[in-house]
Amino acid sequence: MGIQGSFVGLLSEVYIDEATAYEDLIGNKEKVIEIVNKEENLFYRTLQQGEVEIQKHLKNKGKVTGADAFYFYETYGFPLELTEEFL
User: Fold this and answer.
1) Burial of 31 per CB tally in 10 Å (0-12, 13-18, 19+)
2) In the structure, what pLDDT confidence band is assigned to residue 3 with cuts at 50, 70 and 90?
3) Tell me: the pLDDT tens digits for 64-87?
4) Could you tell me which residues come within 8 angstroms of residue 12 by beta carbon, excluding any fewer than 6 positions away?
5) What are 4-26's pLDDT values in tens digits?
6) Which of 55, 59, 83 is closest to 69 using CA atoms?
């Protein structure tokens, strides 16, 4: 998609600005965007760590089994779909 850097917070801001029916959302806009940005950054770190672990695993074992994919999810929070895509 060509997206560089964080973007979910920007999308959230646009949504909040357009979602006029949700007064609580509008009133807590800054807090919501701050939380969304933190979550996006945590997920990005999870992805980075998971990719490193998969690369190490591939170097040592040469393949990734279903049990291995589950281990990456259970231990590192790396989603199965992204394991499949990474492979």
Assistant:
1) exposed
2) confident
3) 999 999 999 999 889 999 899 888
4) 32, 33, 36
5) 778 999 999 999 999 888 889 98
6) 83
| Tokens 């992805």, located at residue | 47
DSSP H stretches of helix in 1-87: 8-18, 23-27, 29-61, 66-76, 80-86
How big is the chain, counted in residues?
87
Residue at token pair 């945590």: 42
What is the DSSP-derived secondary structure letter of residue 5?
A: S
Tokens of 68: 């291995």
79 Cβ contact list (under 8 Å, min separation 6): 73
Per-residue tokens: 3: 């997206």
* CA 7, chain centre distance (Å): 11
